[in-house]
Design brief:
The chain contains 16 helices and 19 strands. By secondary structure, the protein is α/β, with parallel strands linked by helices. The structure holds flavin-adenine dinucleotide.
């Protein structure tokens, strides 16, 4: 019998791994460890919207963690952003969706209280790093270990466990799928000679929360039926963003303000029903236009459909040219093209969006559902079903995963089924049966954006996703 076998090792100290750890501890499962490849926890990542379904799940996982996250988000509203905070629409009371002429097509409140009244839970915005830090602070320091990059997992049936092999203190390879720039954050210490140390851990169960470029997913799928789905697939959509456009002529600024922002901090500009039909595949082009909270300058984020090759190798001026071309094809007004042309090349960035589809449907064959579990290992969050952020559901859906997986692991613990492979398999299959249909629905909504196409569709989507009764879902899961 081996000593030092953890009940659960969680790989990835992102929001979903940490929320899982918090939920397990809350249910008395304390023999756990969270490993992360980052050399040290540093400000990285973008601003996230946590919406009612994510917040309901977090509250159910642990009311203290929920309160801490809520306070971190709402408490920041009057202070300096910790990371791109100026991009968040949080302090804008409403967020208008306007057509290319600037007319409002739809407008939604972004106030916590209004959402609370409507869906039984509010919404908050906070930077990924602030969310990570707040969740990390809910856990004893010694159980969250940075500088442990998981490179392999190996089933050890003879020991009733699975082994996790990690390397430490080495240069982490650039991650082309990440929503932050690993090169900036991970390689700060490359002047010092790289000393690689290997370390292995053993656990009854592994929760793989290692993000969209998941190593564990690749290990599980290697040489299996699912090997084509090991790496994320390009979603067909990309973003070009500019933090800030300074020094723009007064008449351009005045026209943009009068037509689109109209005293608000943020707006989304996209096609309406009529113009959408005229532009074919460029109908998906949309621009989130905002004013920086710090400098009051305009900034923007353009989402558009594009082949991956069109983005490759582009930065600075060539990205500006691409954005102008995208706007021309989509029939966007001249004043917005002018704004793009005025963007400082050093402020402009691109981001292709990737996806792990929950269901791969092809009319000729039976739909494929890439597995989210194998033996003692379960995938959660972006590692299972990462997707573009158009409906702001990545972390929110991940929190729903965390809740389901925590409840099922708590049942394994309560029934002392740590060594019962069949019970473990059944538990993880229940997780998949619960979560996969929702993920397929949310991914479809994300890629087609059908909830935004009419008020009726928005209401239907919102009631299904935000209005869901999490307690009821948990009861049904327990009885399934
Ligand atoms: C521009 C943008 C905007 C977004 N906006 C929203 C939004 O408004 N609302 C929303 O809900 N979602 C949003 N998302 C999605 C959201 O960021 C992700 O869904 C969420 O961060 C996923 O959490 P996670 O914990 O599964 O993975 P991640 O956040 O990716 O965390 C994974 C963690 O695993 C670690 N890791 C990776 N590999 C290894 C390894 N081999 N060994 C050890 N550790 C490892 C990483 O260092 C990281 O800490 C947005 C995404 C983008 C790109």
């Amino acid at each position: 019998m081996l000593a030092d076998i953890y009940d659960v090792v969680i790989v990835g100290a992102g929001p979903i791994g940490l929320a899982t750890a918090i939920g397990l501890r809350k249910r008395g499962i304390e023999n756990i460890l969270v490993l992360d490849q980052t050399r040290a926890f540093r400000p990285v990542g973008q601003v996230l919207d946590l919406l009612p379904n994510g917040l309901k799940s977090l509250r159910y996982l642990d009311p203290h963690a929920y309160e801490a996250v809520k306070n971190a988000a709402l408490g920041l509203s009057n202070s300096q952003p910790s990371n791109q905070k100026q991009n968040t629409p949080k302090s804008s009371p409403t967020w208008a969706f306007r057509n290319l002429q600037g007319q409002i097509m739809r407008s939604m409140s972004v106030s916590f209280d209004n959402w609370f009244q409507e869906y039984g839970e509010g919404r908050v915005s906070l930077a990924w790093y602030d969310l990570q830090t707040t969740l990390r602070q809910q856990l004893p320091q010694e159980i969250v270990r940075a500088n442990h990059r998981c490179i392999n997992v190996v089933d050890e049936p003879e020991n009733d466990c699975v082994r996790i092999d990690c390397v430490s203190d080495t240069t982490v390879e650039a991650n082309p799928y990440a929503h932050w720039n690993d090169n900036k954050t991970e390689n700060l210490d490359t002047n010092s000679p790289a000393s690689v140390t290997n370390k292995s851990f053993r656990a009854r169960l592994i929760v793989a929360a290692d993000g969209i470029n998941s190593t564990i997913r690749r290990v599980l799928y290697k040489d299996s039926f699912y090997q084509d789905y090991a790496k994320p697939e390009y979603s067909g959509f990309a973003a070009i963003s500019c933090r800030e456009v300074a020094d723009i002529p007064a008449e351009v600024e005045a026209e943009i303000e009068a037509t689109f922002l109209q005293n608000s901090r943020v707006t989304t500009i996209c096609h309406d029903e009529v113009s959408r039909k005229a532009v074919g595949e460029m109908e998906d082009t949309r621009m989130m236009l905002f004013r920086s909270r710090i400098t009051n300058q305009f900034g923007y984020l353009i989402h558009f459909a594009s082949p991956l090759a069109a983005l490759q190798g582009k930065s600075g001026s060539s990205l500006i040219n691409l954005a102008v071309k995208v706007f021309e094809q989509a029939g966007f007004p001249d004043v917005l093209k002018q704004l793009v042309r005025l963007s400082p090349p050093e402020n402009i960035e691109q981001r292709p969006y990737y996806i792990h589809r929950a269901i791969i449907a092809d009319s000729d064959t039976t739909p494929i559902q890439p597995t989210w579990n194998a033996g003692r290992v379960v995938l959660v969050g972006d590692a299972a079903h990462g997707m573009p952020p158009f409906m702001a559901q990545g972390a929110n859906q991940g929190l729903e995963d965390a809740l389901a997986v925590v409840a099922l692991i708590a049942q394994i613990a309560a029934e002392n089924n740590w060594n019962n492979r069949q019970a473990i398999t059944e538990a993880f299959q229940k997780y998949e049966q619960l979560r996969r249909p929702w993920m397929a629905y949310v991914q479809e909504a994300t890629l087609t954006r059908h909830p935004h196409s009419s008020e009726h569709n928005w209401q239907q989507y919102s009631q299904q996703i935000y209005g869901r009764n999490v307690e009821q879902v948990m009861k049904e899961l327990a009885n399934s």
